[in-house]
Design brief:
- By secondary structure, the protein is an all-alpha fold.
- The chain has a domain of 172 residues: MetI-like fold (Orthogonal Bundle), CATH 1.10.3720.10.
- Helices cover 77% and strands 0% of the residues.
- The chain contains 14 helices and no strands.
- It is globular and about 75 Å long.
- The two termini are 37 Å apart.
Length: 280
Amino acid sequence: MMRTKKMQKALLIALLCGLVVVFLTPIFFVLMNSFKGKLYISDNPFAWPTGDMYVGLENYIEGIDKTGFFSAFGWTTFITVFSVLAIVLFTSMTAWYITRVKTKTSEILYYAFVFSMVVPFQMIMFTMSKLADMLKLNNPLGMVVLYLGFGAGLSVFMFCGFVKGIPYEIEEAAMIDGCNPLVTFFNVVFPILKPTVITVAILNAMWIWNDYLLPYLVIGVSTPYKTIPVAVQYLMGSYGAKDYGSLMALLVLSIIPIIVFYLTCQKYIIEGVVAGAVKG
C-alpha cells in the first residue's frame, strides 16, 4: 500500500512538472526572442540568440520609443489599481448588505449579480461602448466605472459566500457597543474578509491588467490614454507588417509586474476561493 502511494505521488509530481514545463515554455521563447533581431525571429524562432542574432536591449528601446510604453504603463496601472480598489470596496459592502438584510429586493439583487456572470461580453459590447461614449466614460476614470460593473458579479458572489460563514453574534456585539453599520462593517467584518479580499483583488487585477477588448472599444488607439495591451497591438501594424522584436520585448515588460504581483499573493487564492465557495 505504501509503495503504491509513493508511486502515485511520484507520478503526480512528474505530471505537475510536465505541466510547469508546458506552461512556462511559451514565456521562455518570448523572453529569448526579445533579444533577437527582427528577421531572425521569423527565420529561427527556436534558436538561441547568439552571434548576429543577438541585439541586446535594442528591441526594448525601440518598442518603448514606438509605443510610448511608459505612458501606457502609467495609465494601465492607474486603471488597474483604482478599479480593483473600487471593486473590493463596493462589492464587499454590497455582499454584506445582501447577506444580512433578508428581503425580496436583496434576493433579486443577488441573483442579478449572479446572472451577470453568465452573460457573454460579446452580447453587450457594442451597446456598452455606445453608452460609454454618451456618458463620457471614454477616459481612465470612466474605465474604472466600467470595470466595477463587469467585475461586480463574481466578486459579490465570492464575498456573499464568505460573509455567510461569519457568526452574526460578532456584529451584534459590535452594535451593542454602539457601533453603527458602517463602523461595524469596516472595523469588524472587513478585516475578517481578508482572504476573499486578496483573492478578489488578484483575480480582478490580472484580468484588468491584461484586458485588451474593453479599453480598445471604449478608449481606442488614437487617445493618450492607451493601455499596455492596446499599445502592444500597435506593433502588429497594418497590411501584415509586424515588428516581432519590439513586440516580444514589450510582452516581456508587460507581464513582469502582474507575475510579481501574482507570486506575492498567490497563496491566498485557493484559500479565498474555497472559503467563498463552501462557507454558509
